[in-house]
Write a structure and sequence with these properties.
By secondary structure, this protein is mostly helical. The protein has a domain at 15-57. The chain is 90% helix and 0% strand. The protein has two helices and no strands. The chain has helices spanning 2-28, 32-61. Helix 1 packs antiparallel against helix 2 (32-61).
C-alpha cells in the first residue's frame, strides 16, 4: 500500500510545483513556453494520479 501512497504524494507535489512555475515564469514573466510545459506536466501527473487512485480503490474492495 505504501508503494502506491508515496507516488501519489509525489504527484501532488509535482502538480503544485508545476502550477507555481507555470504561473510565476509563464504568466508573470510572459514566457509562454513555461505555461505549455507546465500544463503538459500537470496533465501527465493527473493521469498517473487517477490510475494510482483506481488501483488503491480496487485493492481495498478485493478482500
Amino acid at each position: 500500500m505504501w508503494k502506491k501512497v508515496l507516488p501519489n504524494v509525489l504527484y501532488n507535489i509535482g502538480i503544485f510545483l508545476s502550477l507555481i512555475v507555470g504561473y510565476q515564469y509563464g504568466i508573470v514573466q510572459h514566457h509562454y513556453g513555461y505555461i505549455v510545459s507546465a500544463a503538459l506536466i500537470i496533465a501527465i501527473f493527473v493521469y498517473l494520479k487517477i490510475r494510482i487512485l483506481k488501483d488503491i480503490r480496487n485493492a481495498q474492495k478485493k478482500p
